[in-house]
Amino acid sequence: MRAPTVSVIMPAYNHAPFVAESIRSVLTQDYKDLELLVADDGSPDETVAAIRATSDPRMQVFAYEANRGAGVVTRELISRCRGRYIALINSDDAWLPGKLSYQVDVLESNAELAAVFGRARYFDRDGQPVDKSTMQFGAVFDQENRSRGAWLRRFFDHGNCLCHPTMLIRSEVYREIGTYDNRYRQLPDFEMWVRFIRRWQFHISDRELINFRILPGENASSHTPANSIRTMNEHYMIAREFFDGVSSELLVEAFGDRLVRNPIPSEVHADIEKALLFFGYNQWLGHMYKVVGVTKLFDLLASPSHREVLEKDYALDDRAFHKLMGEADAFRPGNPLTLMPGRVLVQELKRRIRRRLSR
To answer: What single DSSP character describes residue 66?
Structure first.
C-alpha cells in the first residue's frame, strides 16, 4: 500500500460536540494525499461515537478505554504515521481551507525548512468568532520569522509562541530527536521546539491556518491557578536542559551581546557562558532562572577543568561564588536584584577580568 505524503494525527478527549467538525476540516482539504489517524484517550462522553460517525478510507480510528494523557497518545499516533510530513490537529479545532496544500508547497520548495507554522483565528464553544484583542495572549502566535539563534533567544526570554495545531513538520525530525514528553502537561510542544531549534529552521506564515477554539477553564492552556503553577514548574524543568547540545556558534548568534567572552574559546567556556546566562534579568522567569544558574555554577566549580577556567578567565572562585550566592536571591520574590538590568552580572565579571589583567 502506497504511503501518503501527509499523515494527520488527532488525539481526542471529551470533545463530542466538536470532533466531527475537526475531522471534516481535515478530510475536506483540497490536498487529498493524506491519512488521518484519530485516537480517543478514554473519553467518558460520546466522543468515540462522534468520531465513528464519519467514514473515509483515509481515516483510521483507535479508541482506548483508559485515559493515559495526550502525550502518550500523540507519541503512539506519530509511531503509526507513514507520511513524509506530519500534521497535528486538536479535536476541538478546525483547519481553514487550503492549509495543507499551502504548507506542503512551502516545505517542498524550501529544503532548508523542517517545519512550517501559521497564525490562528479564534472562536468560542458555539463557533462564534472571538476577537484576539479581547484575550490576554491573543496575538502571541503573530510572530515574525527569525534566525535559529534569534528563536533560541526568544524562547529563552519569553517562552512559547508557536501555534502547535498549525504545524506541518518533516517526519524525520521526530525520528531523529524524539517526540513529546508526557511528563509535561502545559509545555510539551515548547520543550519540543527548544530541542528542534538546536538543529533545524522553521517558518511561520502570516496566513491564518486554523480556527482555534477557546473553552475557558477547559483548554489545557486555560489560565487556571493549577495550570499557571504547573506552567512555571515545567519552565523550570525545561530550563535545566535548555542549552544542552547548543553549539558555541548558535550560542554566539543568539546571545553574543550577553556573553562575558565572545568569541567563546572552548567548550568549557561555553558551559560557563550557558550557566551565566541564567543570571540575566527576566521579568517572568528570573527567580526560577537564578535557581538554575546557581545550581549549574555550583556543579561547574566541582569540575577541575571548569574550575580552572572559572578562576583564570572569569575571576570566579569559591569566594566570588559565595558572594553571588548572597545576592542572587532566587527564592524570595521582591528582592531588588530581580529588578537589576540583565547585564549586571556580565558587567561585573568583565570588570573583575579587566582588574585582574591590569595587575
So the answer is: S
